[in-house]
C-alpha cells in the first residue's frame, strides 16, 4: 500500500482530510476514538498486532509515520 | 476539614495499599504521602502562602496528584489546566487567576509571579525535604479554580471552596459507594473535575487510582485487565473505545461499575458495553463544573429508566423553570436550576451582577441556572433534554461557539466569524469567516489560538455576514451560506465508505 492509499484509509476511518501525510493525527483533527478505530483497522488490514505504545512515539503519530510502522511490521513491505 | 485531609485516612490506615498506578508504576499511600510532604515544602519554598493561586498544566501522573494535594494542604488555590491548551489559552488563565506560581510551559506562564515547567518542578519537589505543614484555613476558603467555558467571553474560573468540594465527594459517595478494594480507571484528564474527583473519591475509601493517558488507549483493555480495574468513569468516546476493543478481545475483567456524566453514549453503545463487561452496572449522572454533581441514577433503575440522569444527589434540590422564572411541574420542560450543598461560590473575578448563572436565592445561598433544559418525572427523576444557547460539548469538553468566533476575529483581516453548532451532535464543527484572509491561512493562525476541542474541522469563507434584527450573528443564515459553499466543493470530498471499525459520531 502506498502513502496515498494509506491516507485514504485514514480519511475513511477517521472522517478527516489528510492535507499532509507528515501532519500528526491530532493536528488533522483525529480524536481518541478514531485513533483507536484506525489502529484496529490497520490490524485487520495488515494482519499484525499494533504495539499499544506505538503512538506514544511522536515520529509514528502521523499517516506517514504509521505507514512506515506498518511496513516495518509486515513481511512484504512492498506489498500492494 | 480541608479537601487535602481526605488523604490522611489512607496514609494512616492503608499506607501499604497502592494509591495510584501511572506510567512509572504503582505508588502506595505511604510514598504518595511522602511526595505530598515534599511538594508542600517545595511550594512554601517558592513563597506560596494560603490563598495564592497555583496554575498547574501537567498530564495524568503522580506529579499532578502530589502537587494537587500539597497545594490544598498549604492553603493555596489549585488551578488545573489541560496541558493541550495553547500557550495563549493558558496565559489567559494565568493572568485571570492572578497566579503566584505557574507550573507550565515557559511561554504560557510569563504573567505569573513565578513560573517553572512541569518536569523541573517535579525534579525539585523530589529533592526537597518533607514538610508536615498544614495551613489553618476555613472550610469556606477557596480550594480550586476550575476554568470552564460560559456563553460569553473567555473561560471563567469556577470558585470551588473546600466545603462544597467535600459535600460533593460525600454526596456522590453516598450514591455510588466506591469501596476500599476498588481500582478506578482515570482516563479522563485530571485537569477536568470529573477526572480529578476520581482521586478524591478513591482517597476517601483508600482505593487505587489508575492514571491513563490518550496514548494508552490502544492498550486500555489490557490495562484494565492487568491492574484489576473495577470502576470506569466514562465519556461517550471512551465508552465506544472500550466497546471496540472488548468487542474483539473479549477479555475477562473485574469491572463492576461504569459511570457517565455530561453527554451520554447512545443507548445501543451502553447496552453493548454492559453486555461486553458481564457483571457491570451503569450509573448515569448529570452535573456541571459550577456545582460538580447534580443528579445520579441508581444503576438498579437504569433498565426501567434508561433516559433519566437520576434524582438529585443528597443535599441538592432541582427546580425546572419557565423562561419567566416560575417553577414548572412534572413533565414540563424548562431550564434546570439547582441549589444546595454543592453549588460553588460563583465565578472568579466576576461581579455578582454579571454572574448570570449564579443567582442569589431568597432562602440564602446561590441557585445555579444551568442553561440546560430538562424535566422531572413524578418521582423526581431528571431527564436532560439539551441546551438552547451557544454552548456545545466537543470531545468531552464544554466549549462556547463564541470562543471560537472571538479567536477568529482576533486574526487581522477577519472581520467576522460565525461558528455553527455541529449537526448532528458530534458532527464536524464549521466556522464561517468573512474577510481578506484565505481559509488555509485562517486555519493555521487559529491553530495557535485554539486547542483541539475548540479548533474547527473546516473554515469556510463567506461573502457576507448575516445578522439578526438585533445585530447578533444569524447562525441559521450563516449555516445556509456555508452549506451552499460546502455543496459547491462536495465533489472534492473523500468518498465515505464504511469500514467495520468506523464508529458512529461521538
UniProtKB/TrEMBL annotation, chain A:
The keyword Mitochondrion does not apply. It comes from the Bacteria. Residues 1-74 form the Carrier domain. Keywords: Phosphopantetheine, Phosphoprotein. InterPro entries: ACP-like_sf (IPR036736), PP-bd_ACP (IPR009081), Ppantetheine_attach_site (IPR006162). Pfam families: PP-binding. This is Carrier domain-containing protein. The lineage of its organism: Bacteria, Bacillati, Actinomycetota, Actinomycetes, Kitasatosporales.
Automatic annotation (TrEMBL), chain B:
The keyword Transferase does not apply. The keyword Ligase applies. Residues 13-348 form the AMP-dependent synthetase/ligase domain. InterPro entries: AMP-bd_C_sf, AMP-binding_CS, AMP-dep_synth/lig_dom, ANL_N_sf, ATP-dep_AMP-bd_enzyme. Residues 483-506 are annotated as: Disordered. GO terms for molecular function: acid-thiol ligase activity. Keywords: Ligase. Residues 484-498 have a biased composition (Low complexity). PROSITE patterns: AMP_BINDING. This is AMP-dependent ligase.
Amino acid at each position: 500500500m502506498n502513502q496515498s492509499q494509506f491516507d485514504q484509509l485514514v480519511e475513511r476511518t477517521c472522517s478527516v482530510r489528510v492535507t499532509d501525510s507528515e501532519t500528526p493525527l491530532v493536528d488533522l483533527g483525529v480524536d481518541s476514538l478514531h485513533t483507536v478505530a484506525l489502529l484496529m483497522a490497520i490490524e485487520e488490514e495488515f494482519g499484525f498486532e499494533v504495539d499499544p505504545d506505538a503512538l506514544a512515539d511522536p515520529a509514528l503519530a502521523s499517516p506517514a509515520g504509521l505507514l512506515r510502522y506498518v511496513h516495518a511490521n509486515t513481511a512484504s513491505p512492498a506489498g500492494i | 476539614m480541608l479537601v487535602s485531609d481526605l488523604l490522611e485516612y489512607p496514609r494512616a490506615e492503608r499506607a501499604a495499599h497502592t494509591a495510584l498506578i501511572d506510567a512509572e508504576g504503582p505508588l502506595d499511600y505511604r510514598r504518595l504521602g511522602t511526595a505530598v510532604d515534599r511538594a508542600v515544602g517545595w511550594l512554601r519554598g517558592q513563597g506560596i502562602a494560603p490563598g495564592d493561586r497555583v496554575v498547574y498544566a501537567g498530564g495524568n501522573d503522580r506529579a499532578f496528584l502530589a502537587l494537587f494535594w500539597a497545594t490544598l494542604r498549604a492553603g493555596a488555590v489549585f488551578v488545573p489546566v489541560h496541558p493541550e491548551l495553547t500557550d495563549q489559552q493558558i496565559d489567559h488563565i494565568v493572568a485571570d487567576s492572578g497566579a503566584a506560581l505557574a507550573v507550565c510551559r515557559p511561554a504560557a506562564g510569563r504573567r505569573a509571579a513565578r513560573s517553572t515547567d512541569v518536569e523541573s518542578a517535579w525534579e525539585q519537589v523530589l529533592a526537597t525535604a518533607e514538610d508536615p505543614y498544614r495551613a489553618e484555613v476555613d472550610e469556606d476558603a477557596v480550594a480550586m479554580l476550575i476554568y470552564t467555558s460560559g456563553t460569553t467571553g473567555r473561560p471563567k474560573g469556577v470558585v470551588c471552596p473546600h466545603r462544597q468540594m467535600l459535600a460533593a465527594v460525600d454526596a456522590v459517595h453516598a450514591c455510588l459507594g466506591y469501596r476500599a478494594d476498588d481500582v478506578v480507571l482515570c482516563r479522563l484528564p485530571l485537569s477536568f473535575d470529573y477526572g480529578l474527583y476520581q482521586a478524591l473519591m478513591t482517597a476517601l475509601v483508600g482505593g487505587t487510582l489508575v492514571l491513563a493517558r490518550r496514548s494508552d488507549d490502544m492498550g486500555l483493555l489490557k490495562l484494565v485487565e492487568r491492574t484489576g480495574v473495577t470502576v470506569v468513569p466514562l465519556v461517550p468516546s471512551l465508552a465506544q473505545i472500550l466497546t471496540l476493543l472488548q468487542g474483539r478481545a473479549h477479555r475477562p475483567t473485574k469491572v463492576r461499575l461504569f459511570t457517565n456524566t455530561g453527554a451520554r453514549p447512545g443507548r445501543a453503545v451502553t447496552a453493548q458495553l454492559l453486555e461486553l463487561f458481564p457483571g457491570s452496572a451503569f450509573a448515569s449522572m448529570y452535573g456541571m463544573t459550577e456545582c460538580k454533581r447534580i443528579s445520579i441514577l441508581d444503576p438498579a433503575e437504569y433498565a426501567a429508566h434508561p433516559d433519566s440522569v437520576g434524582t438529585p444527589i443528597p443535599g441538592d434540590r432541582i427546580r425546572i423553570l419557565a423562561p419567566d422564572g416560575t417553577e414548572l411541574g412534572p413533565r414540563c420542560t424548562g431550564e434546570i436550576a439547582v441549589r444546595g450543598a454543592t453549588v460553588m461560590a460563583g465565578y472568579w473575578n466576576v461581579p455578582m451582577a454579571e454572574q448570570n448563572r449564579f443567582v442569589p436565592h431568597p432562602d440564602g445561598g446561590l441557585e445555579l441556572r444551568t442553561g440546560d433544559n430538562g424535566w422531572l418525572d413524578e418521582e423526581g427523576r431528571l431527564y436532560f433534554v439539551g441546551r438552547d444557547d451557544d454552548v456545545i460539548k466537543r470531545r468531552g469538553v464544554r466549549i462556547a461557539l463564541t470562543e471560537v468566533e472571538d479567536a477568529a476575529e482576533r486574526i487581522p483581516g477577519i472581520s467576522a466569524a460565525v461558528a455553527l453548532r455541529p449537526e448532528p451532535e458530534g458532527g464536524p464543527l464549521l466556522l464561517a469567516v468573512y474577510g481578506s484572509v484565505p481559509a488555509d491561512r485562517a486555519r493555521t493562525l487559529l491553530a495557535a489560538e485554539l486547542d483541539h476541542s475548540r479548533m474547527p474541522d473546516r473554515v469556510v469563507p463567506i461573502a457576507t455576514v448575516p445578522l439578526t434584527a438585533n445585530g447578533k450573528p444569524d447562525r441559521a443564515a450563516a449555516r445556509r451560506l456555508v452549506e451552499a459553499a460546502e455543496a459547491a466543493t462536495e465533489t472534492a470530498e473523500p468518498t465515505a465508505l464504511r469500514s467495520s471499525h468506523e464508529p458512529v459520531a461521538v
